[in-house]
Here is the input.
Amino acid sequence: MAQVETNEDYKKYLDPKVLSRISRLDIKARLIVEGYVSGLHKSPFHGFSVEFAQHREYSPGDDLKHLDWKVFGKTDRFYVKQYEEETNLRGWILLDISESMDYRSGEVSKLEYGSYIAASLAFLMLQQQDSAGLVLFDDQIRTLLKPSGQPSHLKLITRELAEAKPTGRSKVGTIFNDLAERLKHRGLIILISDLFVDPGELAVGLQHFRHKRHEVVLFHVLDDYERTFPFRDLTMFKGLEGYEDVFAEPRSLRDGYIAEMENFVKHVKRTCRQHKIDYVPMTTSDSLEAALSAYLAGRLAMRGK
Here is the structure.
């Protein structure tokens, strides 16, 4: 009986409405990525395989079938066609499971919403024959599933998402720096978090991923109440991640809180812009189906320019 309940738990993160829409869209990394298996994505390695890249002058020993006779006719010199390999994408989904991610003002917590994002993107990557991996973290890595392209890997990912328990404080400095050094092949890093972390550590960690030439996408997930602060009556604000509870009159705090939140978001956006990182703001009341589809469609449109 317990096993049946677990199965149902992990299936709830695969919303058919979300998956049916995003499955028509590709996550094609805008940066060139490495890989070993034939797939949808360009590799920096040149070989005689799929897509024409450039010409180079003929050298003794080159296969004559790759000579470009049209160029020879125009220049009277031998040139060989070079091609780019098509390789699969390695995607790492990093989900913050710290205590603040457990907050909810409505039916869905930030952690649940983030898990829906993670499961949907893992489904999409595996569907297009890419590899998806998962990291769950707070002040340390709690779960690490290495990327795999096997369809059965989705079940492992969604099971870990279903069993994730929000605890502890989020601390990204050491975690991101360690991961950036451990990931030997360039790929796609998808970070899903409310970003209640040290801004300096976040900036350094994101920069480290980019220095290693990973593409990075940041899904910034917040609750509606965290953005709008609609409280009016005397309220006990429960401290999370080690902070003390605070009993306060919220109307006197609202303007200052909204200003601080706007500055915080502007800082994160600026950090992402500086390091060419996609910043995707989301709130738990947003239709995930619409928001995720709009973002992925926008990626494809930008890639086509």
Observations:
- DSSP finds ten helices and eleven strands in the chain.
